Structure formats: C-alpha cells, structure tokens
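Example: Major facilitator superfamily (MFS) profile domain-containing protein.
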Amino acid sequence: MTYISETAPTCLRGSALALVPTGNLMGQFLGSIVIYLCNNVEGREGYIGAFGSQFILVIAPFIVGALMPESPAFLEEKGHSEKAFMATKKLYAPRANPMTEMRKIRASIAEEKKMSKGATYMTCFTKAHLRRTLIVILANFLPTMFGLDLLSKSSYFLQLIGMPSSTSLLILIAGVVVGIIANAAGVWVMSRVNRRPAILISLGGATVLWASMGISGFWRGPVVANVTAGLLTLIIIVCGVGVWPGSYAVMGETSSLRLRAKTQAVGGVAQQGTSVMMSFVLPYTYNPDAGDMGGKTGFILAGLCLLAAVLCWYFIPEMKGRSFLEIDQMFDLNLGAREFKHWKSREAEPRALD
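Written out as structure tokens, the predicted fold is:
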C-alpha cells in the first residue's frame, strides 16, 4: 500500500488503493474453495492439502516484487537521485514527463524536511504529524468497525443459526465473489466520487443492514438463516463499494511522503490489534455457550458502524485529486476536515529545486 500511494498518479491513486481489498478477497476466495474441496477429506490429507496449496500462491507476488522498479520517492529521500529518475522514467514515461514528476517529488520531500528532521516512528506522534497519524489509524479501524471480522467468519456464523455446513460454505464463496465484484465497482467509485460521501453513505447503509439482521435475530429457523445470509451479502456489497476501498484511499493519501511507510506500519498495527480484539470478543456474543445472541449480534455492529460514521464526519478530510504538496499545505494550515474540499492551492505547480 505504501508503494501504491507513493507511485500511483494523483488521478489513479484512489482507484489503485481500492484494489487492495480486492486482493484480500481474492485470497479469501481461493482459501474458501480449498476449504470446500477439503471439507469431506478425512485424515491428515485434508489439512495437508489445505496448507500445502497456499505455498503455490506466493510465487506470482514474489516474481512481481523482484521485477517492479523501486519507489522514486524512497530513492530520492535516501539521496539516490539518479536511480530515482530512472525509476520515475520506468513508471511514468512516455505518458508523463519524468522530470516534472521528479520536481513534484523533490518539492514535497523538501517541504516535509522543513517540519521534521530525522524521521522516526516517534515523529509520527509529534505535533506536526499527530493529526495525520490519527486519521490513518481511524481509517485502519474502519474494516473492523463495519464488521469485516464477522463477515469473514460468515460460514461458521450461519451454521450457528441453523444453516447446514455445506450450504454455509457455498454462501461464503458466493459472498466473496460478490465482494470482488463490489470492490471492482469500488475502484470506479473511488475515481469518480469523493472519499467522504462514499465512506459515509456506505457506513449509513451498513448500519441499517446490521440493524435489520439484529431484528431478524429475535426469530429462529431456516428462513431466518436465509435472511441473515442475504443481509450479510448485501453488507459485503455496500461496504465493498464504499467504505472498504475508501478507507485504503484515505490511508494512502493522508500520511506525509517521508513518514508514509512508518505511518502505514503504525496503522497496520492498529488494524491488526482491533481485528484480534474483535475476533476474540465477538464469539462470546454469538456462541451458544456464551452470549447466544445469534442474529442479534447485528445490533453491536450497527452501533459500531454508526460510531464510525460520526468519527469519519468529524475527522476524515476530503483529499481526492490532491497532490502530495497540496495535502501537505492543507495540513500545515490546520484546515478543518470539511474545509479541505474547498481549499485552493497557493501555487499550481511546485517549483524545481536547485
């Protein structure tokens, strides 16, 4: 994600970052197919086949990682200007002028160096960068808050409320396929729609759907299981089009260029921490030997979605279509979240540095 946010052109940055959830869903899709095929295999061959198949999938990312050029911003920040220019040429030529792109990168790095010397993880929490770090952390919280941890366990959850295991696995696979399609639509949405409305409308829709699932939890039976499966699928669609890709766009656009990798690491730790906590707490709400809430668990996630919408309204700014330098200037001016959209840059293009 750091690489995408540093190298993608401004007009494509949101759409490119929106592909991150699609990659996650592709992994879940392949994994769910393997589980479905190994579901009735008895003995050690079942789990050996499931684990062994995953080693094949790392070959393609390894080859791509070895062949793609290094980030020009990273090379320039490290003082390797010639290598940075060559990487810029590989990434942007001939459609864009590599020298113009290098000037923008150098101007952005130079402005950030005025505010922070010797970037470390602690720099992310200094006064100049704290707001940006907290926004990245909030964006990382969003997948957990809209219920991704329960959606990823939908097969087990549906079994608890009365659906056969084979049917629940098919529902899981279908849900992942629908999620991939929704994320593909989300890529288009991120290139056309501003981040704030996409995230807020998506969270609003998810709130209504989770609340509907909570209401259905007052009844039991096969019909309720089918209704719950349908609502979970709709939640995947609503979140896959808006808040999920939108959260990754915000993560990639908010942090400063020099602190991007470190801020993303801090946000990643926050995301994993909340995901682990949710994976630990949620089963106590819906398991029969604990809270036994069943479908009424939807009320909890509806509340989290509503809280997420309020936090996003007050704290997440609109950065669609902004260059790194413009984003730096807006944060330097300490503009309010709702003022970012209407701010006009004080200079159209950054000057070349001597």
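The two ends are 31 Å apart (CA to CA).
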